[in-house]
Write a structure and sequence with these properties.
Oligomer: single chain
Strand content: 5-15%
Shape: elongated
Helix content: 40-55%
Largest sheet: 5 strands, parallel
Number of strands: 7
Structural class: alpha/beta
Distance between the termini: 103 Å
Length: 454
Amino acid sequence: MSDSLFSENHYQPLAARMRPDRIEHFYGQEHLLAPGKPLREAIVGGHLHSMILWGPPGVGKTTLARMIAQGADARFENISAVLAGVKEIRGAIASAQQERESRHRKTVLFVDEVHRFNKAQQDAFLPFIEDGTIYLVGATTENPSFELNNALLSRCRVYALRPLTNEHIRQVVVRALDDIERGFKGKLLLDDDALELLVSVADGDARRALNILEISADLVDEKVAPGRIDTVLLQQVAVSDPRRFDKGGDYFYDQISALHKAVRGSSPDAALYWLVRMLDGGCEPLYLARRLVRMASEDVGNADPRALSIALDAWNVQERLGSPEGELTLAQAVIYLAVAPKSNAVYRAYNAARADIQNMPSLEVPLHLRNAPTKLMQEMDYGKAYRYAHDEPGAFAAGENYFPEALKSRQYYEPSERGLEAKITEKLNRLRQLNRDSSQQRYRATSGETPCNG
C-alpha cells in the first residue's frame, strides 16, 4: 500500500503518527491512569514533578512524558542517553534556563534510556532538578534500584509500567486501521485470525504491533487482494521478530528467577514453560544448562543425587548435538529436577562452613590428622594416635575428631527427611550416637566412674 499516506514529504512511521495526544486515547496502565490515580491527576491538573517511568518497550513511556509536558503547558525537551553526552546535557540545561528566564516557562526534560548514563552524568541533573530549571522524566527498561543513583532516585518518583494486554494491543491496532488522519483510513483489512495473530506476536508492545502492521501493509499484493492482510503475510513479517527477551536485562533475570523458583516449587509444567520461554526469546542454551546444574545441587542435592548427573548429561548433549536435540534434553532435565525430592541441606551447609572460614582465624590442623612422611614429622607427633577408620568396627572410628579443636562439635550438614536424605539422616543419627557413647566412655575412663548397670 504505497499510496500518498506513505509518500508525504515528512514521513513518520505509523507508530509515531498514532501516538496518543490525549489521555483518553492512551491504552493500558490503568493502575496509574485510572480516575483518581496520582499520575493521571498530575497530567490532567498540570502538576509537574520529576519521575522515572520504568517499564518494557512499547507501553507508552515517551507518550506519557509528552502528555505530562502538554498538561502543564511546559516546553518538552527530548534527549537519548544512548546518543547524548555531556555536551547534549549542557545544551538541554542551557535551553531550559533560557526558557525559564525569558518566557517564565517550565521545561520537561525527557531522557530516554536514562540508565545508560553513568554516575557523573546522572549527578549532573541534580542541581537543576532541585532549583526547578528542569522537571526530569527518565524512561528506563531496567530496574531503577540497580541502575540509577540513590541521589537521583531520591528526587524522582518511580512509576512502574506494565506490558499491554492483548485487549490493549487490539484497541491500538483497530484504531490505526480506522483513523482517517493518521492511520490507514479504513483502506486496510485484517480478518479476525490475522488480527489475533498480530496481537499475539506483539507480545504486549504497541510499537511492535504497529511496526509489523505497517511493514505488512507495504507488502500487500494489491492485484491479488487489495488492502488485505492475511495470516500468511503476517507470519512472514513477524517470523524474524523474536519475543521480548532482553539478555542481561530485567526480563532475562526475571525469567531465570521464575524458572528457578518453579523447579524449587516442584512445578514441572511452569518450569518447562519458563525454560521454553527463554529458549524462544534467544537465551543461550548452554547458559540454561549451567543454571540447571546449579539447581540440581542447590535445591535437590542429596535428596536425589541423580539430578546432578541428569543435568550434566543434558549439558553434555547440548554441547555435542546442539539444537534441537539439546533443547529436548534440557526439557527432560528441568522436568526431572522439578519432580525430584527437594533439599537445600548441602547449600545451607556450604554457606555455613564458608561463613565460619571467612569469620574465624586460620585454625591449625590437629596433629593426629597431619601426614607424617618424614622421621622429623613423626618425632613431632604428626599423625600420632590417628585411628584408621577401616580397622574400626563398621569402618567407623567412634569418637574421632576431624575438626580443628575449636570447632570439634560443629555441625553444618543437616539432611532433610526427603528422598535419599531420609536414609542419610538415619545413618548420621546412628553415627552421632556412637560418637556420644564413645565420649561418655572416655569420660568415665578418665574420671574413674563406675558404669551403673541398674
